[in-house]
Amino acid sequence: MIGNVIKYLKNNSQEIFKYTAYAVVVCMLYYIKISVEIYNLTNQLSAQKGITDMPDFSKIFWIPIASAFALFAFKRQLYNITVPCFIQIAKDQHDQQMVEERANKSALALYKLCVYMGTSMWGYIILKDSEIMPWFMGGSGSLVNCFTNLPYQTQIPGLIEFSLFQMGYFIEDIINHVFFKERSSDFWEMNLHHFITLTLYGGMIL
Questions:
Q1: Which member of 32, 64, 65, 108 lies 3.0 to 4.6 Å from 168 by CB, making a disulfide possible if both were Cys?
Q2: C-alpha atoms less than 13 angstroms from C-alpha of 126 in its C-beta half-sphere
Q3: Phi and psi dihedrals of 30, rounded to 5?
């Protein structure tokens, strides 16, 4: 019985992930709808309490889109510059297809290294003097302060823009995965991962 179930899952894994991804998209749309309603309600209550530093709703849309385009352009330029260099030094020079695959993987790894290092430094600069950055991460605050005045916490300057830029990274990634990247055996698994990530990012920011 268990063996048959495992065999069925192996043989139909792509279809299972495909329809799971569709279901997540439907849930994502509903989750975003609820998040927008909560945002509007919180904004109204904040205005009544005299709180004026709630994030601008329009900013939540244009920053991720702009950062996605910027990161896409940066990735293309980095590929154009580095792939020819990696082709010259890659192993298996007798196999041109293998060389090109290695060069493209190396360029992708370099792109991710640049993005992760850049965003890590940016995030640290934003948080290092905040009241929520604990001493063991290089700050002087405490994680407990994350819950002070919940849900009307004082906004940390630059943090919302940082989060929206990070969201743009995943928007670029899913667009590249769906429309530009050659489909591989994990196509639907990666789609599922991207849909869930974007849902969590969008809801968290709202």
A1: 64
A2: 15
A3: -70, -40
